[in-house]
Amino acid sequence: MASRSKLSGIQKQVLSLYRGFLRTARLKSPEERHRIESVVSAEFRENARNVDRKNFVYIEYLLRRGKKQLEQLKDPDITGLSTLEINKCPAGPTVEKSPIAN
Amino acid sequence: MAAALRPAILRRIRLSPSPLAAAASAASHPHALARWLSRPMSSHDAHLTRDEVVDRLLEVLKSHPKVDPSKVSPEAHFEKDLGLDSLDTVEVVMAIEEEFKLEIPDQEADKIDSLPLAIEYVANHPMAG
Q1: Which of A5, A79, B39, B99 is the most buried (most CB within 10 A)?
Q2: Neighboring chain B residues of A23 at a CB cutoff of 8 Å
Q3: The Complex 1 LYR protein domain covers which part of the protein (chain A) (predicted)?
């Protein structure tokens, strides 16, 4: 990975989004927090490994999708993220509403 | 009664040299007085020592799942010495926030890539607790 002093703008956006997810996870219950952290970390790492660094169009798409999911996750009624078999789920993690809110 | 006592009280106060000295000193060092006045109410009284900051930061780093604790030193660079990538570094900086009850803005967080920089940031942060 490139030296930290050379983080590109798009890398900074990705790290900022990751930070946003981790910050939001802190606001949930400890179990949910742990689950959100695992799912988010797995998703970011999977994309970091598999997505071509120069595929800006796709990275921009992932950033937009991630930002939308983060906005949903910030809703206090949303308790957490869930994924079913990440590899077979092209849409990525989906947000989960708490049973109380339904 | 109060009226009768007033001159006596005023005379006593005027004769006492120490309040005058204090007032003079306060006038020439207004910030010193402000500091002294705020002291009993300040929550930063027990400001962290640098050693304490270093010790707690070393512990945060050693507890990260990807870090080999034997490689952690106050001079360590997250990527070069500890083998962390940029996502790990975000996790480490977030853990530092929690340890010291801080919120580090993105711009600052992006710059913290080594223990020396983390130590510098936390030790100079007035709200670090």
Answers
A1: A79
A2: 94
A3: 12-72
Nearest to B110 among A7, A26, A48 (CB): A7
Tell me whether A42 touches chain B (CB under 8 Å). Answer: no
Indicate which CATH number applies to the domain containing B63. 1.10.1200.10
Q: Write down the pTM of the prediction.
A: 0.70
Number of domains in chain A: 1
- Residues B74 and B113 occupy one common structural domain: yes
Specify the number of domains making up chain B. 2
Task: Tell me, yes or no, if A15 comes closer than 8 A to chain B by beta carbon.
Answer: yes
Neighbouring residues of B109: CB distance < 8 A, sequence distance ≥ 6: A19, B90, B93
What residues of A are in contact with residue B106 (Cβ under 8 Å)?
Answer: 12, 15-16, 19
ipTM value > 0.95: no
B59 domain residue, yes or no: yes
pLDDT tens for chain A, 102 residues long, are 444 457 889 999 999 999 999 999 999 999 999 999 999 999 999 999 999 999 999 999 999 999 999 999 998 887 766 654 444 444 556 666 655 544
Question: Locate tokens 């970091």: which residue?
Answer: A48
Q: Which two tokens stand for residue B75?
A: 């001079």
